[in-house]
Amino acid sequence: MKQSNMLIPTLREMPSDAQVISHALMVRAGYVRQVSAGIYAYLPLANRTMQKFKAIMREEFAKIGAVEMEAPALLTADLWRESGRYDTYGADLYRLKNRDQSDFILGPTHEETLTMLVRDSVKSYKQLPLNLYQIQAKYRDEKRPRNGLLRTREFIMKDGYSFHQDYESLDVTYEDYRKAYEAIFTRAGLDFKAIIGDGGAMGGKDSQEFMAITPDRTDLDHWLVLDKSIASLEDIPAEVLENIKQELAAWMVSGEDTVAYSSESAYAANLEMATSAYQQKTKVVSQEPLEKVATPDCQTIDDVKSFLGVPEEQTIKTLLFMADGQPVVALLVGNDQVNDVKLKNYLAADFLEPASPEQALEVFGANFGSLGPVGLAEDIRIIADRKVQDCHNAVVGANQDGYHLTGANAGRDFTAEYVDIREVREGEPSPDGKGVLKFARGIEIGHIFKLGTRYSASMGANILDENGRSQPIIMGCYGIGVSRILSAVIEQHARLFVSKTPKGDYKYAWGINFPKELAPYDVHLITVNVKDDQAQALTQTIEDQLQGAGYDVLTDDRNERVGSKFSDSDLIGLPIRVTVGKKASEGIVEVKIKTTGDSIEVHQDNLLETLEILTKEN
Amino acid sequence: MKQSNMLIPTLREMPSDAQVISHALMVRAGYVRQVSAGIYAYLPLANRTMQKFKAIMREEFAKIGAVEMEAPALLTADLWRESGRYDTYGADLYRLKNRDQSDFILGPTHEETLTMLVRDSVKSYKQLPLNLYQIQAKYRDEKRPRNGLLRTREFIMKDGYSFHQDYESLDVTYEDYRKAYEAIFTRAGLDFKAIIGDGGAMGGKDSQEFMAITPDRTDLDHWLVLDKSIASLEDIPAEVLENIKQELAAWMVSGEDTVAYSSESAYAANLEMATSAYQQKTKVVSQEPLEKVATPDCQTIDDVKSFLGVPEEQTIKTLLFMADGQPVVALLVGNDQVNDVKLKNYLAADFLEPASPEQALEVFGANFGSLGPVGLAEDIRIIADRKVQDCHNAVVGANQDGYHLTGANAGRDFTAEYVDIREVREGEPSPDGKGVLKFARGIEIGHIFKLGTRYSASMGANILDENGRSQPIIMGCYGIGVSRILSAVIEQHARLFVSKTPKGDYKYAWGINFPKELAPYDVHLITVNVKDDQAQALTQTIEDQLQGAGYDVLTDDRNERVGSKFSDSDLIGLPIRVTVGKKASEGIVEVKIKTTGDSIEVHQDNLLETLEILTKEN
To answer: Which DSSP symbol is given to A430?
Structure first.
């Protein structure tokens, strides 16, 4: 493909509104353009990367018997009324009316549509299992779309749905998908972890998330690509290195999820679901009497701790939540943070939100800062984190503004359900007892769920079993954020190219080192001087030669300055660069392998075998 | 692919709501399902046909340097306000608001989006020409969606847009597209005509439509596929043939357009644009005086003609239109029909509609049935068809209810602009003088336009030319109805399979003979008895053999009655059927080539070469 035919609007500067590097680079390198907030056009380069990713998916899904189809995006609200989601989905759902004033939505996912299609066609267990998927634009009216393709209002998703007679069959397909996802993300050149995820929002029972790990901003070995003229990091002057570190630190760490993983085992979970090892301490403590003490101006645990001179592990924090409209009290030790997802899942609540000051006043008779579990009405549920069991003679709010109680003891002074509701912290022991928890930021690129009968039951999708008895179909669902993959791959493969000028000045510039499988083209073929007929002829010969050997080639045939061609090339980030320069008359070109930085002059006759050797080494 | 893994919900009966055969068959054969009025899910078979069609398009577009991208479907109304179409597009435009109450639309086409993207990136003539396309869901809130995929509210479209410095460059790309479209539709196995189209609605100057021709309902050679047991049509008893003819006639002729084409030349045009040869007659006639005559109860030309005893060619019909709100009178000879599109294009009007009785009364002082061109206010434009020039001493309405004028002559009694505004009729001479016009019904599958500066001028998409002067970009646009292709191909390849039972009874059943290039699979491999281990093993061997040789194979591994497997197979319509039946133990299978009806028994070792020979003969 001739670059003069392509729309690749590269920019000289980083776009000022971008906070994460993938967003900045995908705009600057001319992959995408925003059309309106959170709504993007995928320009030709992005389209090619997505096509390559789609091809990988189609190959891997064919292996597990998944069949592609395509449902509409514009859906009658009646479908969503059947499942109940029309009323519960909230403001993220795009709603519209057609010319007859009937209600429609733009599909954010397609559980209802696929359930309906299968319900209307499948009547017998003999027709199951079925495993259907589609690759399609999806719509969510995000409150705050941001970070390029990471959170958008229109996005491309692969969504798959499987239909089974029993859970054993679902387990097989779920495991097929887990392996297929691992194969897909591995082939796509992504650094990812399969982690325990939260399926609560989808009504699921079992789920796994696939997270692309965001590189650590301080890992210079990861980020920097040194020019041949620079032997190692040590060569770079301290003040230049400091600037580089600042440049790296200036970019927001992308990925809205934190992955907690074991330093020594395969354990990995979304922070929302992560647990750490806990064993109740067996300690005999004599219970002190309850005593009310004035704690003026003490609003936080830290305030109380220092005012009363007690250790943090002897203080209990009391929170109030509204779970599906009912007040629920949560207790945690000291400054432990509550994990909403764990609490919500334990309560099996559809909605959980922190209570308002007014609601707190009603339940406790006091304001925030002095809440406590002692003396509450009997019908108020109290959920305490497991660690509260180890907290004796504790300090709690007195339910009177400006006062706390000391000597509070569970069992005697209040009753609670003990559950793991705290957010784990880095360094705590892994729940499987192997190693300690480490944290990383991740971008959710895939998610597989066991849905069970959530949709089939409400929508009446039943089959007759071997004995002629009707039963709801068992379902699974499987998503991949296709447009988000583009963000993830650029986030992981963005690099700072550091070079030294002949004068000895150090320069650095951002670019992309696309992995081979997702690069829009394999080779960037650059003619330095398009007005040189010999160079032009050699370029055409090499383009034909490379394409004949199966390489996808982008030929920069533009009449532009060579500096601008090379900087565009660094931005676009194809794996191999072939430059037709001064030695064109001798048939000699320069080959550069982007990932290794290898650069070599080679005669046109030896180009193909050289490329084969150089790329095999990767 | 194992058929047990596929969702192919075939039906025993034709769906009762289908009026055209393609709609009926695509539902009955399990290709599609309607989700809501005019909104369809493409089930796995339809998805595969569309994927194959997309692959053909991508190959042909790569040859002309067209580059694929993907714009969003959810568009900010601001873009459409820039072009002015937000206010003028009418009720077909889906409009919605996002959570901030900003106006959005669902894109029915993407002129604005692409114009904006190119405007914001391209500043110099050196960056042109550009030729971009996408394949994507489009939205039109059709008043009356109907006929399966022929008129839907969500549909898949390939839309391309080209950008040029001058019209010469546009002409080159337009011609490239014309050839690419011909190559695509030819490869897709479609019977089509490239015709002169109306580009008025798109603001275009030059346009060509590609119409898939609907087969004539009376052409038995086209529709019937006779079983080996029936030598020719003559063998079929008259009463059976009569039933077959009625079955064919019962299906509505699909295609909303009429194509007028020359019996002897390449001339072909949409009826909306078709002209016939016309030369003004040179005839000296003495002008009679105007005379008002009572014509009680005469409302139509036929009434007047028989009441007054004058030939039809001596009567003039007077019509009133409102063109962009202004009254315009149209005159035609006798019962000639006005062609709104020709009239609208001549007037360069944005909107043209027939006037109401009230508007007619205001302009003529009379009601419909007595309107005439004599004595109208001077500022009323009168557009007469060219043939009115040959109408002397004519009868026209007297502008007084119940009266006509005789002896009316243009020039003396009224003044008109003479233009071709009549609808041509079958049998009239072709405008190029070669042959006569014939009519056929067609389905619009493609359309190419020269847009000019319609969008670039209103949206400020300018470039600097060689001399640094700013000029609007010249544009072309190019559409293909991808989902509609599925309707067109089934419309043309639906067949009635006629067979004779051993008892001598004649039966006929609908099915599809998919052309090779668009068939979802190449081969339907059917195991008659899946409980026979030898048959099962042979089936697997043959599936592997065929797939290894590059055939796409659908293997019917279902435990169903053989009759139901064969009738499903006839409906689905794959080009080749391989049946593993009674002779499985000998390694012998039956091969049937659907288009020729050839059926042959062959040993598994000779299967591949037999298929090669049999399909080469096609």
So the answer is: P
**What are the φ and ψ backbone dihedral angles of A5, each rounded to 5 degrees?**
-85, -10
Residues in A touching B169 (Cβ below 8 Å): none
In chain B, residues with a C-beta closer than 8 Å to the C-beta of A39 are 72, 74-76
Helix, strand, or coil (residue B237): coil
Instruction: Please give the CATH architecture assigned to the domain spanning A521-616.
Output: 3-Layer(aba) Sandwich (3.40)
CATH code for the structural domain at B46-216+442-490: 3.30.930.10
Digit-coded pLDDT (tens) for A382-400: 999 999 999 999 999 999 9
What is the residue whose two structure tokens read 């400054």? Answer: A335
What would the pLDDT profile of A159-199 be if each residue is shown by its tens digit? 999 999 999 999 999 999 999 999 999 999 999 999 987 65
* B72·A41 Cβ contact <8 A: yes
CATH hierarchy code of domain A7-216+440-490 = 3.30.930.10
Where are the alpha helices (H) located in A64-199, listed in sequence order?
77-83, 85-88, 111-121, 167-187
- Phi/psi of residue A558, each to 5°? -75, 145
Classify burial at A436, counting beta carbons within 10 Å of its beta carbon; exposed 0-12, middle 13-18, buried 19 or more.
Answer: middle
Q: Which residues contact A162 (CB under 8 A, 6 or more apart)?
A: A66, A129, A130, A131, A132, A170, A173, A174, A177, A475, A476, A477, A478
A-B CB pairs within 8 A amount to 171
Contacts of A44 in chain B (CB under 8 A): 67-69, 132
Domain locations in chain A? 7-216+440-490, 291-419, 521-616
- HEC secondary structure over B585-618: HHCEEEEEECCCCCEEEEEHHHHHHHHHHHHHCC
CA distance B6 to chain A (A): 7
Largest CA distance in chain B: 97
At B487-496, the pLDDT tens digits run: 999 999 999 9
CA–CA dist B542, A188 (Å, integer): 34
Q: CB–CB of A161/A476 below 8 Å?
A: yes
Q: Alpha helix (H) ranges present in B349-460?
A: 357-364, 454-459
pLDDT along chain A (618 residues), means of 10: 95 94 97 97 98 98 97 97 92 95 97 98 95 97 92 97 97 96 97 80 66 94 90 92 95 86 90 88 86 91 91 94 94 94 89 93 92 93 95 94 93 93 94 93 94 95 96 97 96 95 93 96 96 94 96 95 94 96 94 86 95 77
Instruction: With beta carbons under 8 A apart, name residues in chain B contacting A42.
Output: 69-71
Q: Which of B30, B68, B76 sits opposite A36 (nearest CB)?
A: B76
Interface with B, mutate which of A34, A76, A81, A121 (most B CBs under 10 A): A121
Chain B nearest CA to A139, separation (Å): 9
Q: Do A117 and B141 touch (CB under 8 A)?
A: no
Domains B291-419 and B521-616 agree in fold: no
Confidence category of residue B284, pLDDT binned at 50, 70, 90: confident
Architecture of domain B291-419: Alpha-Beta Complex (3.90)
What is the distance in angstroms between the Cα of A331 and the nearest Cα belonging to chain B?
36
- Chain A partners within 8 Å of B6 (Cβ): 67
Contacts of A127 in chain B (CB under 8 A): 4
Tell me how close the Cα of A41 comes to any Cα of chain B, in angstroms. 4
What does the pLDDT read at residue B200? 44
Q: Which residues pair with A592 in a beta bridge?
A: A577, A599
What percentage of residues in chain B have a pLDDT greater than 70?
Answer: 98
Q: Does the beta-carbon distance from A1 to B67 stay under 8 Å?
A: yes
- The interface predicted TM-score of the complex, written ipTM, equals 0.90
Tell me the backbone φ, ψ of residue B248, rounded to 5 degrees.
-65, -45
